[in-house]
Design brief:
Layout: H1 6-19, E1 24-28, H2 31-42, E2 46-53, E3 59-65, E4 78-80, E5 89-90, E6 104-109, E7 112-115, H3 116-122, E8 126-132
Antiparallel strand pairs: 1-3, 2-3, 4-8, 5-8, 6-7, 6-8
Length: 133
């Protein structure tokens, strides 16, 4: 069965993994997913990640989840903005900030996948992928 929204599936796996207090999650690998997880790691929402080779030329992306000292997940909210049925684009001047800058909006730009504040400083816009707080 084919997946219509692989990035949304990965974000749901992260959300469900944190609610279940998992130490790590795995999902099918793609370069786009790896770029999004890289941004989440830079912003401190997830721990280390690695690409794991499976049999028959397939790969998995294994992401370590982070928790506070009280045991709560670092990610309070994570949701997909641009979906397959409705793409959402933004330029650098009207880039949405999330929770007044406490959260991060992940944007796919011509310069690569990056956080909203980096896209604003580089003055590039693109597709708004997801928002994390």
């Amino acid at each position: 069965m084919t997946m219509s929204d692989p990035l949304g599936d990965m974000l749901t796996r992260i959300r469900n993994g944190q609610k279940a207090q998992k130490t790590e999650i795995s999902c099918p690998w793609s370069k786009h997913k790896e770029d999004v997880v890289s941004v989440l790691k830079e912003e401190g929402f997830v721990g280390e990640y690695k690409v794991q080779d499976l049999d028959s030329n397939k790969k998995d992306l294994v992401v370590a989840l982070r928790y506070s000292e009280e045991g709560e997940g670092v990610i309070r909210e994570i949701h997909r903005v641009s979906k397959p049925g409705r793409r959402v684009y933004s330029d650098s001047k009207t880039m949405p900030s999330y929770y007044n800058g406490l959260g991060v909006t992940v944007v796919s730009t011509p310069s690569g996948v990056m956080a909203d504040h980096k896209a604003k400083t580089e003055n590039v816009g693109g597709e708004v992928l997801c928002q994390v707080f």
